[in-house]
């Protein structure tokens, strides 16, 4: 049966991409988001004249975003201008050595014998990029731009399989002889919440992409991405409702027939695309008696990603670090310490300064600084009272204040509880599923419930802005093909 009216739960990049794809094919679309604005984890909020990210900080692998926009019939370059960060990362090591990463003109080791070590590092980077670029290309131009097919995956990657054994740490040891340089490389993927020895080796393609293509920030911040998608969906006639939390997906005789909103209003639809994570969809939004047991088990056993405390500062002064993202990190084998709470005082931390290239995010001469503090994953969400989050944040801000001048005008703290209650991230897990989750732990786009489709960061190809957009396109295509 052709779907005439599709209801979409969630107006992040996945829900918006699904909406644009469906509406462009003549399907009537109604999109519901619980929040008062769209964009989910790819949006910004204004506070006291400072624009803060509500999740994603930057676009990595820009080619993938271009492909996703092209699939929706939008020319990314004209609709969404972006700044390239040529010096995306600098790492300060325990002995004071500074390792700057970026395009080849900017790579530098500043410390004892810095010039000689820089020239060795440049040669090693070139060899590493040469080794991994072909796989990066397979991922960005092929595998991630199509729904997962094991046969296709094997056909495209079999010749790379010998390289794909082991951890990122093993590969970095093989490629980089200088322990400080290796620590800086390993620090690039710490955003996953995993130390390099637990990070699958293929994540090195993210590092290679950063070295080759840099990181990118859309003009006016990450929310510009979802603004383009929202405007496109509206132009195509999609209905968008904010402040509209969905309480139930209505299922009758094994098939979906619409939604109930928290207000009790019933919306009749031929199909539903849920981007509210696979876990929330099957454990919270459907009558438990009607949830297929395989989906219930998958949701209950889902390996969740890390939680974090977001710390965002609006400064009256300019902060001009050596790179957009600065890490104070231990050597690679000790980086677990960076990912755990540091009760005795914060020594290891990361901060990003988007105003380095986007001064429009702050009032004149001001800056925005964003940090994420490691938290105790075992703490229940209720423990995150305002006092507790201020205490945890103060330790990180004090550490930052030892390295950068801070004239703080405003502070925003986003705790795991806030991510759960206000951002609707399941149990406050920022990426939904762990970055180490296997593809078979992701949720399917087509579910065993007729008319129910899933998209978003807990489905293939997983978390990330461009990848979540693709998941929305894949769910829409599955729906259109039925
Ligand atoms: C702190 C943080 C940092 C990140 N950094 C990066 C980065 O730098 N680069 C990158 O590429 N990616 C990053 N990511 C990941 C990226 O932001 C996400 O993978 C992506 O934005 C997820 O999009 P989505 O549409 O799947 O989900 P979301 O953006 O979470 O959208 C889901 C939407 O559904 C709504 N919703 C949920 N339940 C209901 C309900 N019952 N009724 C109605 N609406 C509901 C929510 O309000 C939300 O708006 C980061 C994420 C976080 C949280």
UniProtKB/TrEMBL annotation:
It comes from the Bacteria. GO terms for molecular function: oxidoreductase activity. It holds the Pfam family Amino_oxidase. Residues 13-480 form the Amine oxidase domain. InterPro entries: Amino_oxidase, FAD/NAD-bd_sf. Gene3D superfamilies: FAD/NAD(P)-binding domain. Belongs to the carotenoid/retinoid oxidoreductase family. This is Phytoene dehydrogenase. It comes from Dyella jiangningensis.
């Amino acid at each position: 049966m052709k779907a005439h009216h599709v209801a979409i739960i969630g107006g992040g990049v996945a829900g918006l991409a699904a909406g644009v794809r469906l509406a462009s094919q003549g399907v009537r679309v109604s999109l519901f988001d619980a929040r008062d604005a769209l964009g989910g984890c790819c949006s910004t909020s204004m506070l006291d004249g400072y624009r803060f990210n509500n999740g994603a900080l930057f676009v990595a692998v820009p080619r993938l975003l271009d492909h996703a926009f092209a699939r929706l019939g939008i020319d990314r370059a004209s609709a969404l201008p972006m700044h390239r960060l040529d010096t995306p990362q600098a790492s300060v090591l325990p002995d004071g050595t500074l390792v700057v990463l970026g395009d080849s003109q900017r790579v530098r080791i500043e410390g004892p014998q810095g010039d000689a070590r820089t020239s060795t590092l440049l040669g090693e980077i070139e060899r590493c990029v040469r080794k991994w670029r072909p796989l990066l290309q397979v991922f960005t131009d092929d595998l991630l731009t199509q729904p997962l097919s094991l046969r296709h995956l094997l056909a495209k990657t079999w010749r790379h399989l010998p390289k794909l054994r082991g951890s990122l740490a093993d590969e970095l040891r093989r490629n980089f002889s200088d322990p400080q340089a290796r620590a800086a490389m390993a620090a690039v993927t710490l955003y996953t919440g995993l130390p390099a020895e637990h990070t699958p080796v293929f994540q090195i393609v993210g590092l290679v992409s950063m070295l080759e293509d840099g990181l990118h920030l859309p003009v006016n911040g990450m929310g510009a991405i979802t603004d383009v998608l929202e405007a496109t969906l509206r132009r195509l006639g999609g209905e968008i409702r904010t402040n509209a939390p969905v309480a139930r997906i209505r299922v009758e005789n094994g098939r979906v027939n619409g939604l109930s909103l928290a207000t009790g209003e019933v919306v009749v639809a031929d199909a539903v695309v849920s981007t509210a994570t696979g876990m929330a969809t099957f454990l919270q939004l459907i009558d438990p008696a009607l949830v297929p047991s395989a989906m219930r088990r998958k949701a209950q056993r889902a390996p969740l990603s890390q939680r974090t405390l977001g710390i965002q500062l609006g400064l009256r002064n300019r902060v001009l670090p050596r790179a957009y993202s600065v890490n104070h990190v231990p050597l690679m084998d000790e980086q677990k310490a960076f990912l755990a709470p540091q009760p005795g005082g914060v020594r290891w931390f990361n901060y990003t300064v988007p105003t380095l290239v986007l001064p429009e995010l702050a009032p004149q001469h001001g800056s925005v600084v964003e940090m994420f503090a490691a938290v105790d994953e075992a703490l229940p969400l209720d423990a995150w009272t305002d006092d507790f989050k201020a205490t945890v944040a103060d330790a990180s801000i004090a550490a930052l204040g030892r390295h950068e001048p801070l004239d703080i005008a405003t502070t925003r703290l986003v705790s795991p509880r806030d991510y759960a209650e206000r951002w609707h991230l399941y149990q406050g897990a920022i990426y939904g599923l762990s970055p180490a989750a296997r593809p078979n732990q992701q949720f399917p786009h087509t579910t065993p419930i007729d008319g129910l489709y899933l998209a978003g960061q807990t489905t293939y190809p997983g978390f990330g802005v461009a990848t979540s957009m693709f998941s929305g396109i894949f769910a829409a295509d599955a729906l259109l093909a039925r």
